[in-house]
Structures are given as C-alpha cells and as structure tokens.
Predict the structure.
Amino acid sequence: MRIDGVRLWALLYELDDPAHLEMPQGFDWEAARRQFDGLVARFNSAFQTTCATDRSIEDASYHAEVTVPSDATATGADLVVRVSNFGNLAVLALENPGAYDQEEFDALVHVSDLTRIFECLDEGDYILVPEEPLWAPYDGRVPASVFLQSKPSWWIRYFDYL
C-alpha cells in the first residue's frame, strides 16, 4: 500500500507518541523481524539476487534496511528500503536516503523495479511512504530537545537514529 498527501500526514501525526520515541507501545520486535526477513526473501526472489541488509539497528526509530544491488535492477543503481518501527511504514530511496528529490527519483527509477518493490512490500503489509515529505521540519509532539540533530525532521522521527 502506498500513501501520500493528507493521508500521509494524518498517519504520521497519529503514530507520533512522545512517550515512545524509538518504537510504539506494545512493539513486537520478533514479529517485526519476521516481517522484515520475509521482505528480504521476497526481494531476493523478485530480483534474483542476494540483497544486503542492515539488521543491527539500535537507538533508532527504524527497524532495518535492505538494499537491492544495482546489478540486479533495471534502474542500474542500488534501491534501498528502510523499514520503520512505527505503523509498518517503509520508504524507498535511490542509492541512499536523501540523495535524490522526488522528481529525480521518478525520472531515474525503472518502472519494472517499482512494480517488484511495490508487490513485495504489499505482500508484507508494509505502507510505502514517499521519502521527500519526510525531510520536512518535524512539528509533532516530541520535544525538539530529544533529537540529536539541531533541525529535527519527520525522517528522523520515523526512519533514523534518535
């Protein structure tokens, strides 16, 4: 499932709980890991490769990251999916998060890669959110002093180290 616009912002604000910074109340780490491992297996199959993963995440609002290597994509560049600890949110980036704006991303990523990624995410019940809006200044309920960086963003709130 993909979400953007008003629905995206409503969901981000709904998930924002100042009492639970790194993961929501009741977060089931083992279930999240099984869900992520299933995603990686689907990517490996869909792209006929072995994707790189980063599963050793601590002190962060995201759970893990998987990279589809450039040589397995029609795009010819790495495709990175980062999975949040919140609301089954996932984000797709070209090469590295923050490297491209939405217009560049849309122009560079091959539609066949998008189709495969969308299908894999949908099968895992992830909600794909666009990356670019997440770089907007954070104006949620968590005090700005909690964030390590001087300019907190929605990206940091749900997809980065705190």
The chain is about 35% helix and 15% strand. Residues 61 and 157 are 6 Å apart (CA to CA). The two ends are 27 Å apart (CA to CA). The first strand starts at residue 52 and ends at 54.
